[in-house]
Amino acid sequence: MHSLDFNCYPSPWLLLPNDVGEASDTLTFYDVTIEEEARVGCQRRFSSLSSHIYGRRCFGSKDGWLVTLDKIDLQPHLFNPLTKAEILLPSLFTIPKDQGHIIEPEYAPDGSTRFFCNEISLYFTVGEEGLRDIYFHKIIVSSNDSYRTTVVIYGFTKALALARPGDQAWVLGPQLPPYSLRHDEQFEDVYYHDEDQRFYAITHFSMVLAFDLNGQNVEIICPAMQDPCWRNRHSDYMCYIAFLSGTLLKIERVIEIYEEEIDRTYKVKTIGFFISKYVPNVTGSSYSCPQWVPVNDLGGYSLFVGCNQTFYLHHMVAPGIRPNCIYFADHLSDMLPENVNQDAGLFELHSRQLQHFLDSNSQSSWPPSIWFIPSLSVS
């Protein structure tokens, strides 16, 4: 195992794919704070982890924890690769069935299993191999409550459910207000705000809801107010939410889907980002209304987005990172292995230039990359 000789300042690491996918017993990270000329040794490797990571991939990370999930039992684990501490959460099969979420196993004569899924007028079946990666999207963990309350975004309509370690089952999270219930109104991202100990969730139409650690006391922070970027066969769109210095930010990511001429396979590549801040009251000539206002400078901070909870670091606090950038890791609306091809890098807000860290043509693209801040302080 790699020695734990990282510095005391926050050091964002990027979890890298490997040659054997989820059959590996090793986690390899790329440390982006290492200076360019020293990057020959910038990888940090932790081995002999098969009992913790075999057959699992990461669906989230927060405060030194990776959130891993298997394909069979669909049981999330919180795992610290430095201390090897592990905390179990209830199986995602325990999410309550309702009119928008029903998953039933179907057993074939050959012993294989498929799952019949029913979401409001949307019926489909999916194999055991694919259910985890297309039906569950992201897992977010609170940071400063003793319970480590967890939220999962799940389903094609992207609903929310909550659980804590030791719970027997998940409970349904906030529902969208009746006046805005549309098939396209989806929860895109969730962020835990340390200061007021609430979760904030943003939808496909830029509506923002806040709720407490029990999924209650729901407050509409921002109403739905604009048409979203639509996903299609040529492009994907991901939306993230975060607070920076008390300001609510929306980060929009545009991903191109294209076909390789050589082997006719489809590839994905991030082509741009847009950041907006929420202003509750923008006054016009005769009215006052909320609005998302474009942001082109982060005051020396940089954002880190992907399946991890979005976080930010200042370049003076974490030497080696570039200021006013968005660091991104693999993240798609459909995270099947054939759709992931090492789409990780940074986007500079001022120049609007992109730099990719990984080789998108590499044969190793699984498990997907994810941002992670190591910590020895969690147990």
TrEMBL record:
<feature type="domain" description="KIB1-4 beta-propeller">
    <location>
        <begin position="51"/>
        <end position="340"/>
    </location>
</feature>
<dbReference type="InterPro" id="IPR005174">
    <property type="entry name" value="KIB1-4_b-propeller"/>
</dbReference>
<dbReference type="Pfam" id="PF03478">
    <property type="entry name" value="Beta-prop_KIB1-4"/>
</dbReference>
<protein>
    <recommendedName>
        <fullName>KIB1-4 beta-propeller domain-containing protein</fullName>
    </recommendedName>
</protein>
<dbReference type="InterPro" id="IPR050942">
    <property type="entry name" value="F-box_BR-signaling"/>
</dbReference>
